[in-house]
Amino acid sequence: MNKLGLILLYAVSLTRLAAGPAFTIDARQPAGKVSPRLYGLMTEEINHCYDGGLYAELIRNRAFLDDNSKAEHWSVVNDSGSAVTIALDQGNAYNDKLTTSLRVIVEKATRDHPAGVANSGYWGIPVHANTTYRASVIARADSPFSTPLTVSIVSEDGGTVYAKAKISGLGPKWKRFEVKLKTQQVVPTTKAQFRVTLEQPGTVCLGLVSCFPPTWNNRPNGLRKDLMQMLVDMKPKFLRFPGGNYLEGDTIESRFDWKKTLGPIEERHGHPCPWGYRSTDGMGLLEFLEWCEDMDAEPLLCVYAGYSLRGIHVNAGPDLEPFVQEALEEIEYVIGDTSTPWGSRRAKDGHPKRFKLTYVEIGNEDWFDKSESYDARFAQLHDAIKKRFPQLKTISSVGNEQPKKLLVHSRKPDMIDEHYYRSTDDFLKMSPDYARNYDRSGPEIFVGEWAAHEDSRIKPWDAGARQQPPTPSMKAALGDAAFMAAMERNADLIKMQCYAPLFVNVNPGARQWRPDLIGYDALSAYGSPSYYAIQMFSRNIGDEILKVESTETAVQGAATRDGKTGQIFIKLVNPQSTPETLQLELKGVASVASEASVTTLAAAPEETNSLTHPRNVSPSTTTLASAKPVFSYTLPANSVVVLTLKARF
Ligand code: AHR
Q1: Is the pLDDT of residue 14 over 70?
Q2: 338-358: pLDDT as tens digits
């Protein structure tokens, strides 16, 4: 080394000493490939995720099946000038799926004093300005009506009519009617009801009442636009569905029985969900698949594997065979061409094009099955799937303890699904070494459910959790970010990962689990600090892993590079309550282009977001003028930082 070189080295060392701990990124050669599917989503019916959440249906208990003894969420509409009674009727069914109807007996009603029924929706009916809703009613009358039925969206006290439409032509036969309801320039509110009323005496039977606001991509049985936008903004590469516990059900009968979720909504009876309420099955198999398509994400299909949550299992062998067939047919529905029976059913349901599918998960959290039957059940399903669809990869459950123990020994699953619900402190402790000692020769790893909780003593389902806000605070986001950095450092092995649960309806009584990534009521939604941390990570990811080393153990991080563009993404997490100045060194980089940027999420640990303060903790992006192959950067206290820079080599 010449004199000038020595002087430079000395100067660099001095600056480093002055600037504090070093974070070194080795950009000379990648340490591995980042899986192209690393960031995805996990979903199931929990916390009113679909009914009362993403699934845009506004009418709660639309088919009167929630309770056999009373019309839950329906009430009578009458006043001093009108009179009405209602009763559930199990002897007057629309079909064998909608087995109950609502008999509405209007004894007294006039134009000025209409009478009928009102639905209170999922914690209110959302009234948006200048919006066209699509309502449908399956109804019959004991005798033909001379005046029409009115459907309307009105304020809770009935004093303000936001939108209304008339339905004529009711007769003794069941018929489906569809109308549009258009609101004007109104102040948005959830304090509204959906009404079906008469202006003359008569008896109407309702089989199903449905109302949708505009949906994502205008799908008739579609999804809420605001929530879909939030998901699309995360750029997920896959969607794990339909659960979770929702796949397994409490009993075999109440598993996610996909065949019963197909066809028009009036063909879906719905079923009890293990989270304590009834699912309409409006979100059926095709809706899940189209949801993936609309996000440009790949389905990751979980198939029922013969275990249900009350500890019931189906013995491997002939007993399991019907469920094996059910799984094969389900896969055929997803990827079979239209000449196959279930591919043709998919076409009949409106989607001739096959969906893309790479991974099939067999069961969910089968460590709960104390009979230890999973190995044999997995083997039977795995063999059948591989025989019929050799191109597919299978995923198995693993044990829940750390290190994770394999549950399947008789076969080699292509991938195993690890779940981590841990406190931030635990994540901060385990992340530096996470997966460092894993067997790189496989199986691949899917972290199919994970989330940092602020306090490990409070279980997600406990009464204590109900006292806390539904979505996590900045403290949890710091744990989430440390774990994501660990997964990125090991992204050659951790092929996919997804936070859980995804959604929570924040109304009292709506949730069964906390924390959850995205909160909402009928009208609006917000992302938690963890949502923004995930978005920052998933939107800024390359395809090559760069090895990182840090002399500061409190700060955790990862780096990836886009092999084509040379863009480097550096993720840094400072969980400390003081700022930390790091000396960043990019080994093998000759210069850094001036268009570097920094995105920062920083807030006190207890800070969080809510419906009223949706962006209290949210990221901000600025340009980074100081980026060089060696430069110092100060991380704010309690922060997650993503540096994006273009390197020249
Ligand atoms: O994410 C909530 C639940 O946690 C899932 O349904 C289950 O798989 C896990 O135990």
Answers
A1: no
A2: 999 999 999 999 999 999 999
Residue type, 348: K
Residue at token pair 């839950």: 72
- What interhelical angle do 529-538 and 474-489 show, nearest 10? 20
- Each residue of 16-56: pLDDT tens digit? 445 578 999 999 999 999 999 999 999 999 999 999 999 99
Q: Are 179 and 165 in contact (CB under 8 A)?
A: yes
DSSP labels, 143-179 = S--SS-EEEEEEETTS--EEEEEEE----SS-EEEEE
Long-range CB contacts (within 8 A, 24+) of 220-225: 220/134, 221/265, 221/282, 221/287, 222/56, 222/287, 223/54, 223/55, 223/56, 223/287, 223/291, 223/294, 224/53, 224/54, 224/55, 224/56, 224/525, 225/56
Residues whose CB falls within 8 Å of the CB of residue 390, separated by 6 or more in sequence, listed in order? none
| Residue 493, SS3 per DSSP | coil
Q: What angle do CA 242, 245, 246 make, to 5 degrees?
A: 45
Closest to 76 in 3D by CA, of 117, 115, 112? 117
| Residue 484 CA, ligand 1 centroid: distance in Å | 19
DSSP string spanning 536-559? HHHTS--SEEEEEEES-SS-EEEE
Residue 225 three-state SS? helix
Instruction: Give residue 59 CA to ligand 1 midpoint distance, Å.
Output: 27
Cα-based angle 91, 97, 101 (whole degrees, multiple of 5): 40
Question: In one letter, which amino acid is 94?
Answer: Y
Greatest alpha-carbon span in the chain: 104
Q: How far apart are CA 4 and CA 494, in angstroms?
A: 45
Q: Which residue's alpha carbon is at the smallest distance from atom 3 of ligand 1?
A: 244
What's the token pair of residue 321?
Answer: 């065979």
Is the per-residue pLDDT at 7 higher than 50? no
Mutate to test the pocket of ligand 1, among 419, 449, 453 (most ligand atoms within 8 A of CB): 449
* Atom from ligand 1 closest to the CA of residue 421: 4
pLDDT tens figures, 80-122: 999 999 999 999 999 999 999 999 999 999 999 999 999 999 9
Measured distance CA(208)–CA(454) in Å, rounded: 43
